[in-house]
Design goal:
Shape: globular
Radius of gyration: 16 Å
Number of strands: 7
CATH superfamily: Gcn5-related N-acetyltransferase (GNAT)
Distance between the termini: 32 Å
Oligomer: single chain
Number of domains: 1
Strand content: 25-35%
CATH class: Alpha Beta
Strand order of the largest sheet: 1-2-3-4
Structural class: alpha+beta
Order of helices and strands: EHHEEEHEHEE
CATH architecture: 3-Layer(aba) Sandwich
CATH topology: Aminopeptidase
Largest sheet: 4 strands, antiparallel
């Protein structure tokens, strides 16, 4: 499975799921971990056990107040998730270090449920959560990931730079772009 969702301008015209369709956006619960690990393993082409270990590390960050995890639940089944993480440049970081702040740290939706607005809804929910903590949000993406860039541009992200250092960023087959969203504006706060 490819890490990037196939880009299609037609996907924007697909009706978005809403609460009336049974879509619930919420902070994760311990019972969600198996489904999140399975979705992550499929995307990352890693074992479910490896993904569960990564989720255990993420739980430590959540308990420390440095991360959060949201799920998209459709009719009682977790169909996607999105992470938020706080980043502080480490001591000795280069001058082009990514700025300190809250970052959207990945949204993943089951392939069978893509292009139904779940990723967009998870992104808006995460931005609303960040907006209660900060006036800005950040995100970075591979320049080849057009679907992600379009999704984030639609909620108010703008390109900040292509010359940045973030220790967790790896861009296979393309360059990275760092984006910023001003959450003090209505679009950046998740409104449309």
């Amino acid at each position: 499975m490819t890490k990037f969702a196939d880009y299609s301008a037609e996907g924007r015209r697909t009706p978005r799921l809403t609460e009336a369709d049974g879509l619930v956006l919420r902070v994760w619960a311990p019972g969600d971990l198996a489904a999140i690990a399975e979705i992550s393993a499929e995307r990352e082409e890693r074992s479910v056990a490896e993904c569960r270990n990564a989720l255990e590390r993420l739980q430590k960050q959540i308990r420390a107040g440095r991360a959060q995890l949201f799920v998209g639940d459709l009719g009682g089944t977790v169909v996607g998730f999105g992470k938020v993480a706080h980043f502080s440049p480490p001591a000795g970081a280069p001058e082009n270090a990514a700025p300190e702040g809250w970052y959207l740290a990945g949204v993943v939706v089951r392939p069978t449920e893509r292009r139904r607005g779940i990723g967009h809804a998870l992104t808006r929910a995460r931005l609303a959560w960040i907006a209660t903590r900060s006036g800005k949000a950040y995100y970075f993406a591979n320049e080849r990931n057009r679907a992600s860039i379009e999704l984030h541009t639609a909620v108010g992200f703008v390109e900040l730079t292509r010359d940045f250092h973030h220790p967790g960023a790896q861009f296979s087959g393309g360059s990275g772009i760092l984006f910023e969203c001003d959450l003090r504006t209505p679009k950046g706060a998740g409104d449309e």
